[in-house]
Amino acid sequence: MNDEKFALKEIFTHKTSTHQFQVHWTRLGNPAKPAKPALVFIHGFPWSSIVWHDLASALETRYCIYLYDHPGFGQSPQIYRNDGTESDLDPALILRAEASAALFKHWDLKEPPHVVAHDNGGLVSLRLFIEHGLKFASLCLIDVVAIGPFGSPFFQLVANNLSVFQALPASFVDGLARSYIRTATHKPLGSQTEDLLAQQWQEHGSQGPARFLQDIVQAHHRAIGEVEEQYPRVGSQIPVKILWGKNDSWIPSERASALFTALNARELVFLEDAGHLVQYDQPSKLASEVAIWLTMHSQ
Predict the structure, then answer these.
(1) Residues 6+ apart with CB under 8 A from 146
(2) Residue 275, Cβ neighbours under 10 Å: how many?
């Protein structure tokens, strides 16, 4: 894999009346030479744009692909208040969606993009459409966090004992992050892939162990609010497909069926022998499903 190709060399800075964001991003391909439909990938937690590299490589000849790291993930620094202090928790991902909406508008795309989202990137994508009025050509949701109930015993343990976990050596938190990441796949992750996914949470990584713990606490308090009431109109206005790892131990398949109904989605496909991180369990099947979907809904 050509790491240089995926380097997030572009930096978008956005400031609101209360917060400031810096988002690192990149684009694969020139949208005008020849004209290609735009395709945006949105990652979740505890990931970064790295999880999209294989799928982006499979699709880059036909689409102009946009990759980015959310603030506080991968190469993008965390969100700060305008006074320079760290932002409060964002359990409903309102600030994250605000940063993504500003980035989409900065791109000034000529036509609505296709959007593919994973994990809590799904909630971000739905907020972009429902609350920020962004137009999508299609929406593909992969094992997303978008419908309750939320949380897990692990999230609750960390949230209720945060000071204890914060006092642990960084190497212990690194081990915790790695153990958590390993549970995301149905098949064992290779050591090189595990290192790649865990490196941002290491002591000298781009985010560090404190950020990992903070996001665990944030996930424990996950909330959707009134946006869920608007789910039914999503599928009535844009084509929606849901892909789900049949063996997802993080979010059970019953949640996929409930989301399919709530969104009035057009397709629901379960991928066999795949966990939450379908990108690594079934990369070829995932690429095939996404490619067929995009072809159906590309002009």
Answers:
(1) 120, 122, 123, 126, 224, 259
(2) 22
Which token pair is 116? 């593919």
The CA distance from 128 to 185, in Å, is 28
| DSSP H or E run through 25 | strand 19-28
Whose tokens are 């015993």? That residue is 153
Whether 63 and 36 have beta carbons less than 8 Å apart is answered as yes
Strand 138-144 to strand 114-119: parallel, antiparallel, or no bridges (unpaired)? parallel
Distance from C-alpha of 84 to C-alpha of 76, rounded to nearest angstrom: 16
Tally of residues, the chain: 299
3-state secondary structure of 241: strand
pLDDT digits (tens, 9 = 90+) for 186-229: 999 999 999 999 999 999 999 999 999 999 999 988 888 789 99
Q: Which 3 state secondary structure label does DSSP give 173?
A: helix
Q: Prior bond to 188 cis, omega within 30?
A: no
Tokens standing for 61? 């000849």
Write the pLDDT tens digit of every residue in 9-45: 999 999 999 999 999 999 998 777 778 999 999 999 9
Q: Beta-carbon neighbour count of residue 279 at 10 Å?
A: 24
**Phi, psi values for residue 118, rounded to 5°:** -130, 150
Q: Tokens 């966990």: give the residue.
A: 275
Answer for the pair 111, 37: CB distance below 8 angstroms, yes or no: yes
| Reported pTM | 0.97
